[in-house]
Design goal:
Blueprint (H helix, E strand, L loop, with lengths): L7 E2 L5 E6 L25 H13 L3 H6 L1 E11 L2 E6 L1 H12 L4 E12 L2 E11 L6 E12 L2 E9 L3 E2 L2 H7 L1
Parallel strand pairs: 3-8
Antiparallel strand pairs: 1-2, 2-5, 3-4, 5-6, 6-7, 7-8, 7-9
Length: 173
């Protein structure tokens, strides 16, 4: 398994990058632009764009996340309680903010980014705690279409926020 900063090749020849909670996201990518200006990823690979997306999400930098999306991005999400469809970078980033912005604590458990044909697959598992509530775990998988360094289409499937057993919470401390 490739560690953070090392793109590996799977047994099927697919380039992929996997990270674990002990890895530091900033070791791989520079912080996403916070000026509100859009910048093209240039020489960065699509895999690195996926790592940037996870970094922005875990840092709750929704402005930076929005900057990675095309202005007219199409986001489809299969989430509990049902499917949603969103158009536009700001509304899409706002949906992520709705899910994770109010978290008292947000911990990256596992994540990765890989190419699947002409699409980018980004996945992450997070432990989330909101004020007055127990820890929850959530996993999301995103399949993205890219153009000129921006995400133009994003299909997301979500586990929902699932309870974490007390024993697992103790092990994580």
């Amino acid at each position: 398994m490739a560690g953070l900063g090392e793109a590996g090749t799977s047994t099927t020849g697919v380039r992929c990058l996997e990270m674990d909670a002990a890895s530091t996201l900033s070791a791989m990518v520079e912080a996403a632009p916070r000026s509100g200006k859009r910048s093209v990823i240039g020489r960065r690979s699509s895999i690195e764009l996926g790592v940037q997306l996870v970094a922005a999400l875990t840092e709750r930098d929704f402005e930076g996340l929005s900057a990675m999306l095309a202005h007219d991005v199409r986001m489809r999400a299969l989430i509990p309680p049902g499917p949603v469809e969103i158009s536009g970078a700001e509304p899409a980033a706002a949906r992520f903010a709705r899910w994770f912005g109010d978290a008292q604590a947000l911990e990256l458990v596992h994540s990765g980014s890989e190419e699947v044909g002409d699409r980018l697959h980004v996945f992450y598992r997070l432990r989330v705690r909101t004020e007055g509530n127990a820890w929850k775990i959530v996993e999301q998988h995103l399949f993205c279409e890219l153009d000129a360094g921006y995400i133009t289409a994003l299909d997301l499937v979500c586990s929902g926020f699932r309870p974490v057993s007390k024993a697992r919470c103790e092990l994580a401390r």
